[in-house]
Amino acid sequence: MKWSQPRYGIDVSHHNGKVAWPKVATTRAFAWVKASEGVGYQDPKFASNAAGATAAGVPWGPYHYARPDSETRRGKAVLQDAAREALHFASVVRGTGWTLPPVLDFEHAKPRPSAAGLSRAQTLAWLLKWAEVATRELGRRPVLYTTYSYLVSTVGAGAVPKLRKAFAGLWQARYPGGPSNPAQKTKPRPVPGWPWAVWQYTSKGTTPGVSGRVDLNVTDAPTLARMVRAQRAVRTPGRRGPTPDGVRSSGRRSRSTRVEPQALQSLNPWAVVAASLVGAWLAANG
């Protein structure tokens, strides 16, 4: 990560209470917002956070908190659980105006996948199926959020090539002590073969617009541009009826959420810079 053009952001859920997004827009360039968890839970603040971030001109994306089911421990049942979670996530976030890639939040939970009886192979299969269904339903490959130790312990370093193909990028968490400026902190240990694109450097940050502690993240503008470039719509036809895994698809596609030039006037200054860089990247690499 080069720090010549850092971009700072937050991620929030209902635990952060009511967020004053116009204030957030004064200091933060992007955000991810919790949308769903498991196969049926929707974050009660998702709708208001989505609307607030959009109105304030803060580029944002939705995230899903993974809950690999401890009841489904073999073969096809594991894939069905992953597909159900991805379909639930898609049903919550479709049409809500997100402009950053969707995210799968894969972190320590109780019971965590390895403790729930899932092998490394089953956990990897779960992640790949979730990414496949989410990509098909939303038209964009998701980003994976995790930590180095959790990813290696649950799927192994050898799974990285498959994960890197299924997911558009890696958002890595590491909370070192020391200076509050992330440029002076010890950066995350890189996952072999998969450099992180976004770093969550504290869970105890503060920012205007959010009461109490909040997760803080950093990337840089070129990395953000490349990440968005990788999220260009995957134009696959919608499918109706049961999938090969026996889970019914919605049969709908998500529309591309590229920011049009005429919309830039409504964005905060950080967003204007990010959108301009993305536009330049698309022009050079389209």
As for the CATH topology, it is TIM Barrel
Q: Output the number of helix runs.
A: 8
Q: Return Rg in Å.
A: 18 Å
Average pLDDT metric: 80
Question: What's the multimeric state?
Answer: single chain
Helical coverage, percent range: 25-40%
- CATH class descriptor name: Alpha Beta
**Could you give the count of β-strands?**
11
The percent range for strand residues is: 15-25%
Can you describe what's shown?
- The structure is a single chain.
- The chain is α/β, with parallel strands linked by helices.
- The protein has one domain (6-285): Alpha-Beta Barrel (TIM Barrel), CATH 3.20.20.
- Helix content is 33%, strand content 21%.
- The protein has eight helices and eleven strands.
- The strands form two sheets. It has an eight-stranded mixed beta barrel with strand order 1-2-4-5-6-7-8-9, surrounded by four helices.
- The longest helix has 19 residues, at 75-93.
- The two termini are 24 Å apart.
What's a quick, concise take on this entry?
Helix 3 packs parallel to helix 4 and helix 7 crosses helix 8.
